[in-house]
Each structure stands twice: as structure tokens, then as C-alpha cells.
């Protein structure tokens, strides 16, 4: 075993302290990985005996101790790759423990505790890193000074540190071969100053969730001609979107949650032929989205929600190859154009919270792949086209409109997980076919004109988390089998923060960016706003006269039944006292008689 050169115990179920025996005698070992285990406490001193070690990965454990107190680093001068991220190490901010590591090219220290050196001195390292990650470190007040002497970085991640001051443009000027700079979730202020030289290698730039202000620089595409993705969301940028912000290679652009005004420049479509993902949500945009004759030919994802667009919906935004469109929370008016059915590839469509009127066009049934349909809070009227029963819908939100008709066709969509039809004028009985919706998690039929008895088949919905049929005209006895509902734990996907199906999977290729350093295949997950590209699910549920909106991960835990304000009669079944996992049960404003079940009192 002394001739062993590679040893990996990665992604195991190992825990406790690393022993001094065994592997510490492997004098010829070159690559050693303990990543993603449950090891803790300090590193064994004999680790310093492995002087041939080139690759050491300790990430994702619970190791402790001050890096400066480990003398072993002085002996491991052959290291090229070192990952100590996601531990509880105390790491001196000067990093001068690695001053003699001339071969070091990969250093990942994120999510540890940064400490100030007692004898802090600027030093010039003997190494030139290609990859450096210092994300999420406690106590980091400024960037390590040794970075001023790095000129060959390809990937630099300084996310999640709340670093203050101006944006460090000097990092780009010093490292002209930098391909990815990730600086999200800091406290950088002032304008985003671009480097004085043209940067020919930068492909990914993420400055989201800072306090950057002023106008979006007009010459980004010329400063970074190879840019693939740009994320400037969650800042304080204002003014118009520059007409030349795009570029020949640009595939993803996120400018959401700023104060941008004006329109979407048509040059963005012409000058960015590779644009795949565009998110301009939550700004002050008002004018034309794209011209009638041109739109990005490869645009799959378009998010324009939370702006001030008005007038009729432009029909060209429904064109192929778009698969996800969010135009919600704007001021669009008029009817939904018949051209909505022209794009048979559409998976997700959200037109909620606008001023759309008229009927839902029958052409919507051409969307043979549609999984998410959200038309909430408009002025839509008439019946829902019966042909929707043939669509593979998983989430349908038609609440707060003026829709009429019966539920028969809508309750034949076996793939449904969410059905929100509240605040309309649907009438008739709840069909018995509701029992076939075996995947249903959320059922909201409140504030309609439904009548008749609650069918026993509703008790077959064993994945149900929230049921609201309040403010209808339902009558008859309360089903005792309702006591068996909402008892099982939710599946992992139930109550997910986002509608995610094929869309998230299709985008995963864009989220993983591979960089090479010598013979190591160094991969880095791009932590950008693209990872939350899906349309957020929101469910309104009323308890104690308070209407609350539940969203995100909380939906996984919320469980409730509301049968209030109907005409239900008889006694409350004692079985309803078995609803131990429920958070809200409203039976008020009915005509029940008899005693309150003992289970209610115990709860």
C-alpha cells in the first residue's frame, strides 16, 4: 500500500476524528479526498508527512482549528489543489501560510471563519492561482491583499461576504484571462466601473444583490465581447437598458429588481442571436417588448413580470422557441391573443395580475406540452374551454376572474398538482371524478356558486395539503372520511418553492460551467439568479379572517381545510378529531348540531 497514489473516501458516511494510523504512512500518495463526510475536530499532524501530495480535498466536513497553527502546511509544498471549504476552520485573512506553495493553482476556503493575523504583513506569494473561492466567510471585511499579485485567475468567487466599498474593478484588470467572476450578495456601492482594457476571456459576471447604482454601463458588450451570462439583479440601477448591452455570445441576461425604465431595446434581439434566458422582472419598464418583426431566435425563457407594460399583449412574444413566459403583474389589457396557440412548445405561462378581459381562447388547447397555466386576477369571463382536459397541466391558477360553467372538464386532468379556481362563478356539483386526481396537493374552489354534497371520492386525494371550498352553497352531512385526509407527510416536491418540471432540467446545462486547469477538470456551479428562474407558486388561504399568502418552502408544511360559509348540516364526525397534522380547520358558518369532537378539545 505504500505505493498507493490516489485515495478517495469522498461522499461517505464517515465521522469522528481522522486517525493518525494507516493512511498517514502512504508516503507516495498524490491525491487524497475526504470531501463530504462527517469528520470533525483537528487534522492529524502526520498529514504533513505526505510530502508528495498534490491534491487535497477536505471540503464539506466539520474540521476545526486555526490554519496558522497547523505546521503541516509548511511541508505540503507540492500541493496544486486544496479545498478546505465548508468546515469550521479559522483561516488567517493574509493566507501567508501558503507563501512557499509555488505549485498551488486551486484554492477553495469558502464558508469558514476568517481571522485577522496578529502580525499582519503584506506578502508576495510564490503561486499564481487559477481558481480561488472565498465565499460565505465570517468576518471578511476586505479582500485578501495577496490577490493584488494574482494575474492568472480563471475563476474567482467572492459571493456572500457583504464586502463593502466600490466594486473591485482591479480584479478584472489584473487578471485578463479571468473567465468567471462571481461577486453576488455583497455590499458594493457606487457605479459599476468597467476595466480600462478590453477583456477577451470573461464569460460569466455576477454582481447581483449588491448596492450598485447609476446607469447600466453602455459598453458592456464591447468591454466583454465573449460574455455568456450577465447577472446585475437586486441592485439600484436606474435609467434605460443600453441598446448595446447584448453581445454575440450572450445567452443569459438578468437585470431584475432594479429601477430600470423605458423599454426593451430591439437591438437586444438583433445583437444577441444566442440569447436564451432574459429576466427583466420588477423594474419600471413601460414600452414595447420587442418589435413586431424581430425577437431573439433562441429565446427559451422570458420573464417580464412586475413592470408597467400596458396595452394589448404583443402576439410575437408567444413565438417559438419560447418555453417559459411570465408577463404577470403588469398593466396589459384587452383579450388574450389567439396567437397564444402558435407556440406548441410552451411549458409555463403566467399572465396573472393584469387587466385582460374576454374569454380564454380555445387556441390555448394547442399548447400540448403546457404544465403551468396562471391567469389569476384578471377580468376573464365565460367558460373554460373544455379541451383543456386533454392538456398535461400540473398547476392551474384561474382564481379571481369572472369565469363561469361547471367543473367537469377541469377535474379530468389527472396530472394536476395545484388547482386554484377560487373567486369565480363556477356552479354545479363537485364531480365524483375528482377522486382520480391522485397527485393533487392544493385544491381551492372557494368563493364560487358550487352546490350539492361533497362527494366521497374527495377522500381519495391522499396527497392533499390544502383544501378550500368555503363560501359556496354546499349542503348535506360532513364526510367522516375527511378525518383521513392531510395525514401523510408531503412528498419532497409537494409545496415546492417553484413550479419546476422539465424547465429546470432543461436549464441545468447552462448552470454548469466547466473550466480546465492543467489535467484537473475543475467544475464550478454558476450561482446566479438563473437557478431561481421558475415561476413562484403562491397559495392564498384564510384562517381566522386573515387571508395569508403562502409561498416558497413554507408550502411544504402548511396543511389546512376550510369548509366554512356553506350549508353543511348534521353532527361533526368524531373522525375529524384525528386530523393531528392539520394547522387550520374552519367549519364555521354552517348548520352543524351536536357536540364538538373530543379530539378538537385535546388539540
Question: Would you spell out the secondary-structure blueprint of this structure?
Answer:
Layout: E1 6-8, E2 15-16, E3 31-33, E4 38-41, E5 55-57, E6 62-66, E7 81-83, E8 88-92, E9 106-108, E10 113-115, E11 131-133, E12 155-157, E13 164-166, H1 170-174, E14 180-182, E15 187-190, E16 204-206, E17 211-215, H2 220-223, E18 229-231, E19 236-240, E20 252-254, E21 259-262, H3 267-271, E22 277-279, E23 284-285, E24 301-303, E25 310-312, E26 324-326, E27 331-335, E28 348-350, E29 355-358, E30 372-374, E31 379-383, E32 395-397, E33 402-405, E34 418-420, E35 425-428, E36 442-444, E37 449-452, E38 466-468, E39 473-477, H4 502-511, E40 512-517, E41 520-525, E42 538-543, E43 546-551, E44 560-562, E45 567-571, E46 584-586, E47 591-593, H5 598-602
Parallel strand pairs: 1-3, 2-4, 3-5, 4-6, 5-7, 6-8, 7-9, 8-10, 9-11, 11-12, 12-14, 13-15, 14-16, 15-17, 16-18, 17-19, 18-20, 19-21, 20-22, 21-23, 22-24, 24-26, 25-27, 26-28, 27-29, 28-30, 29-31, 30-32, 31-33, 32-34, 33-35, 34-36, 35-37, 36-38, 37-39, 38-44, 39-45, 44-46, 45-47
Antiparallel strand pairs: 40-41, 42-43
Amino acid at each position: 500500500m505504500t505505493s498507493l497514489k490516489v485515495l478517495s473516501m469522498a461522499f461517505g458516511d464517515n465521522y469522528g476524528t481522522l486517525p493518525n494510523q494507516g493512511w498517514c504512512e502512504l508516503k507516495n500518495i498524490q491525491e487524497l479526498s475526504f470531501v463530504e463526510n462527517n469528520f470533525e475536530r483537528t487534522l492529524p499532524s502526520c498529514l504533513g508527512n505526505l510530502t508528495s501530495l498534490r491534491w487535497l480535498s477536505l471540503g464539506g466536513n466539520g474540521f476545526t482549528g486555526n490554519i496558522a497553527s497547523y505546521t503541516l502546511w509548511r511541508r505540503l509544498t507540492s500541493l496544486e489543489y486544496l479545498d478546505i471549504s465548508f468546515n469550521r476552520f479559522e483561516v488567517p485573512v493574509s493566507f501567508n501560510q501558503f507563501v512557499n506553495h509555488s505549485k498551488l493553482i486551486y484554492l477553495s476556503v469558502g464558508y469558514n471563519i476568517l481571522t485577522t493575523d496578529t502580525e499582519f504583513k503584506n506578502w508576495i506569494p510564490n503561486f499564481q492561482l487559477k481558481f480561488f473561492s472565498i465565499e460565505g466567510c465570517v468576518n471578511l471585511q476586505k479582500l485578501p491583499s495577496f490577490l493584488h499579485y494574482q494575474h492568472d485567475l480563471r475563476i474567482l468567487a467572492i459571493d456572500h461576504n457583504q464586502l463593502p466599498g466600490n466594486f473591485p474593478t482591479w480584479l478584472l484588470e489584473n487578471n485578463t484571462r479571468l473567465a468567471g467572476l462571481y461577486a453576488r450578495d455583497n455590499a458594493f456601492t457606487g457605479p459599476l466601473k468597467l476595466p480600462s482594457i478590453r477583456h477577451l476571456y470573461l464569460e460569466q459576471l455576477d454582481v447581483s444583490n449588491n448596492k450598485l447604482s447609476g446607469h447600466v454601463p453602455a459598453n458592456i458588450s464591447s468591454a466583454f465581447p465573449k460574455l455568456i451570462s450577465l447577472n446585475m439583479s437586486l441592485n439600484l440601477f436606474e435609467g434605460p437598458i443600453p441598446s448595446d448591452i447584448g453581445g454575440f455570445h450572450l445567452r443569459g441576461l438578468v437585470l431584475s429588481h432594479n429601477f430600470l425604465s423605458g423599454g426593451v431595446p430591439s437591438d437586444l434581439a438583433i445583437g444577441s442571436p444566442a440569447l436564451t434566458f432574459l429576466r427583466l422582472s420588477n423594474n419600471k419598464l413601460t414600452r414595447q417588448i420587442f418589435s413586431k418583426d424581430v425577437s431573439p431566435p433562441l429565446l427559451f425563457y422570458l420573464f417580464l413580470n412586475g413592470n408597467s407594460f400596458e396595452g394589448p399583449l404583443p402576439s410575437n412574444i408567444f413565438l417559438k422557441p419560447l418555453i417559459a413566459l411570465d408577463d404577470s403583474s403588469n398593466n396589459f389589457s384587452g383579450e388574450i391573443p389567439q396567437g397564444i396557440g402558435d407556440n406548441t412548445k410552451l411549458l409555463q405561462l403566467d399572465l396573472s395580475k393584469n387587466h385582460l378581459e374576454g374569454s380564454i381562447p380555445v387556441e390555448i388547447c394547442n399548447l400540448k406540452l403546457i404544465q403551468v397555466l396562471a391567469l389569476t386576477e384578471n377580468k376573464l369571463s365565460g367558460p373554460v374551454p373544455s379541451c383543456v382536459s386533454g392538456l398535461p397541466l400540473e398547476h392551474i391558477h384561474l382564481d379571481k376572474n369572472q369565469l363561469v360553467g361547471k367543473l367537469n372538464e377541469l377535474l379530468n386532468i389527472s396530472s394536476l398538482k395545484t388547482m386554484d379556481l377560487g373567486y369565480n362563478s363556477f356552479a354545479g356539483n363537485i364531480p365524483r371524478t375528482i377522486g382520480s386526481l391522485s397527485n393533487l396537493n392544493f385544491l381551492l374552489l372557494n368563493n364560487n356558486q358550487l352546490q350539492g354534497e361533497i362527494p366521497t371520492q374527495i377522500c381519495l386525494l391522499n396527497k392533499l395539503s390544502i383544501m378550500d371550498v368555503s363560501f359556496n352553497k354546499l349542503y348535506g352531512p360532513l364526510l367522516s372520511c375527511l378525518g383521513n385526509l392531510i395525514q401523510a407527510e408531503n412528498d419532497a416536491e409537494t409545496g415546492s418553492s417553484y413550479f419546476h418540471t422539465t424547465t429546470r432540467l432543461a436549464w441545468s446545462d447552462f448552470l454548469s460551467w466547466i473550466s480546465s486547469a492543467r489535467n484537473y477538470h475543475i467544475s464550478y456551479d454558476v450561482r446566479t439568479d438563473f437557478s431561481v428562474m421558475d415561476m413562484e407558486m403562491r397559495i392564498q388561504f384564510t384562517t381566522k379572517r386573515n387571508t395569508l399568502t403562502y409561498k416558497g418552502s413554507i408550502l411544504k408544511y402548511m396543511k389546512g381545510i376550510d369548509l366554512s360559509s356553506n350549508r353543511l348540516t348534521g353532527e361533526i364526525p368524531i373522525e375529524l378529531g384525528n386530523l393531528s397534522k392539520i394547522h387550520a380547520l374552519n367549519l364555521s358558518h354552517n348548520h352543524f348540531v351536536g357536540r364538538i369532537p373530543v379530539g378538537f378539545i385535546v388539540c
